[in-house]
Amino acid sequence: MEITEKDYALWLFNVEGIGNASADKLLCGGLSCRDVYQMSSKELSKILSQKQVLSIERSRHNWDFEREKKKLKEKGIQFISRIDPIFPEKLKNIPNAPFAIYVKGRLPDPGVPAVSIVGARMCSDYGRMMARQFGRDLAMAGVQVISGMARGVDGIAQNAALSVGGTSFGVLGCGVDICYPPENKEIYDSLVINGGIISEYPPGMEPIANFFPMRNRIISALSDVLLVVEARKKSGTQITVDTALEQGREVFAVPGRASDRLSDGCNFLISQGAGVAISAEDVLDRLWTIKGERSSSHSSDTKAGEAMKDGCFEDLDPELLETEMRELTIEEEILGILDIIPVSTSFILEELYKKGKEIPVPVLMSTLMELTYSGKIAQNGAYYRKIA
Q1: Within 10 Å of residue 275's Cβ, how many Cβ atoms?
Q2: Are residues 228 and 366 in the same domain?
Q3: Domain that holds residue 176
Q4: Which range, of 9-18, 53-62, 135-144, 334-343, averages the lowest pLDDT?
């Protein structure tokens, strides 16, 4: 069997006492995982503690590359380390970034918007209703729903997303081959097919209390927006909120009655500046704004715009110039408004109005239908998005 760098990464990730920080210390100087495996104890002792060096020596003696690779394959589990090109970009630069993750199913699509929905395990009827509503509506709009598959809000939102044919991902505080809590087995099985199960803990690792706060940073990191449906003021949900803010993620909260203790956390977050989420459209509108902000921060004026400003047309593509000069059709205007983040018809009408295009709703709907039939856009419930 040929041993690859990925195999060496799996070995290093499973050495007892070598965590994310130690792996970073070993690899940040340009060493590969193979290099670490082949280093002498004397060389290792310049970087690691004596206890860690001894742990590496034992692991090298006991590790069977072929056996470990076969075990993962038989369980349908992928091992994805930071050296792997498919490792999520969103996880690379967060505080205490995981060196690697295990995945059953698949990873979230980086080109599709994602929202993490979290909240109380012992939620109220109101919390259950709102978790279902947001999980369902966001999934129908084509948004990936991410959560911890926990009892209460997490599992309810994910189940609702899956029930309408949506995509969802569960981040666990145990191995990906263990369903926790056991009563969410149906959700677990559906996630493997219509999304994925993700964990930084190796297969077979049973859930431990202090694993759950750690996994919360992955839940928030994989999302564009974190939505808190229902939570007490002091709860585990606040840990996820803190990690989301530390990572620069947007936080939204569903408001509740001032007398409901389970809404204290959400009402407090709103008072501190979190976005108010009354419906999925509130979150979708913000996703659209985030997308626009990211696009504008990475792009300047169009090539045609620059050429016109400078009065230089000789290097400009004639077809591009013609597109800039002529008036766009309604279809082209709509395609210019739409992106991968789904938006409602009212949003499209508002954007057209800003461009000086006032069209009747029936005309808009027929145009959207034609664009859908032609395969240029996709409809998700009452929302529309461009097909990449």
Answers
A1: 17
A2: no
A3: 114-289
A4: 334-343
Residue 303 is which amino acid? K
In a domain, 56, yes or no: yes
pLDDT of residue 251: 95
Give the pLDDT confidence score for residue 309 in this predicted structure: 42
Residues in the chain: 388
Same domain, residue pair 181 and 48: no
Same structural domain for residues 273 and 323? Answer: no
pLDDT in tens, 181-199: 999 999 999 999 999 999 9
Up-side HSE of residue 116: CA atoms within 13 Å toward CB? 28
Look-up of token digits 């930084």: 200
Instruction: Give the whole-angstrom CA distance, residue 241 versus residue 84.
Output: 28
User: What number is the average pLDDT over the span 20-38?
Assistant: 91
3-state secondary structure of 254: coil
In a domain, 99, yes or no: no
Per-residue tokens: 27:
């690899």
Mean pLDDT, range 140-156, rounded to an integer = 95
Least confident of 64-68, 77-81, 315-319: 315-319
Is the residue at 42 inside a domain? yes
Q: Which residue has the tokens 């508002």?
A: 350
DSSP-assigned states of every residue in 72-140: HHHTTEEEEETTSTTS-HHHHTSTT--SEEEEEE-PPPTTS-EEEEE--SS--HHHHHHHHHHHHHHHH
Task: For residue 325, tell me if it sits in a domain.
Answer: yes
Of 267, 264, 14, 224, whose CA–CA distance to 138 is shortest? 224
pLDDT of res. 301 = 44
Query: Does residue 261 share a domain with residue 312?
Result: no
Collapsed DSSP state (helix, strand, coil) of residue 275:
strand
Domain containing 374 — which CATH number?
1.10.10.10
User: Does 280 lie in the same domain as 237?
Assistant: yes
Confidence of residue 303 (pLDDT cuts 50, 70, 90): very low
Distance CA 98, CA 222 (A): 12
What are residue 197's DSSP bridge partners? 104, 170
Domains in the chain, number? 3
220 phi/psi in degrees, rounded to 5: -70, -35
Check whether residue 229 and residue 369 sit in a common domain.
Answer: no
